[in-house]
Amino acid sequence: MKKYQNIEQTKEYQLAKTVEDALNDYSFNAKNFAAAIPMMHPTLQQSLYRLILECLKVMASDNRHYDDRNRASHEDAKAILECLQEKGQPIPFI
Predict the structure, then answer these.
(1) What are 23-81's pLDDT values in tens digits?
(2) Cα-Cα-Cα-Cα dihedral sign, residues 44, 45, 49, 52
(3) Would you say residue 63 lies in a domain?
(4) 12, 20, 43, 80: which is deepest, by most CB within 10 A?
(5) For residue 46, what is the DSSP state?
(6) What's the rounded Cα separation, in Å, for the pair 71 and 67?
(7) What pLDDT is recorded for position 4?
(8) Looking at residue 37, what is its pLDDT?
(9) Residue 61 lies in a domain
């Protein structure tokens, strides 16, 4: 996995921490979050999908630490990426 210098200074890191805080709240509802996606601008929906793909790449990586608590997501991410390599398509920025 690629190492990033000063990642804590980036807006992406700050967003990841905000997401982490939201996910740590037992009242967070993933279905409500997903239901909000169609309300986004179509170009931003594409950008969110590209973000999710990058997250899957990190979660699938054998170079990151995972244990039994997140083994299933690691293995699923690997399987999803294998499927996308075979059947997926480039996601344009439009």
Answers:
(1) 999 999 999 999 999 999 999 999 999 999 999 999 999 999 999 999 999 999 999 99
(2) positive
(3) yes
(4) 80
(5) H
(6) 6
(7) 75
(8) 98
(9) yes
Per-residue pLDDT at 21? 97
Residue 3, in any domain of the structure:
no
Q: Would residue 92 count as lying in a domain?
A: no
Quote the tokens at residue 86: 């075979």
**DSSP character for 41?**
-
Query: How is residue 25 written in tokens?
Result: 């709240």
Residues in the chain: 94
Residue type, 86: E
Range of the domain at 74: 8-87
Q: What predicted TM-score, i.e. pTM, was given to this entire model?
A: 0.87
Helix axes 42-60, 71-87, angle to 10 degrees: 120
Q: How many CA atoms lie within 13 A of 73 on its CB side?
A: 12
* Distance between CA atoms of residues 25 and 17, nearest Å: 13
pLDDT of residue 2: 65
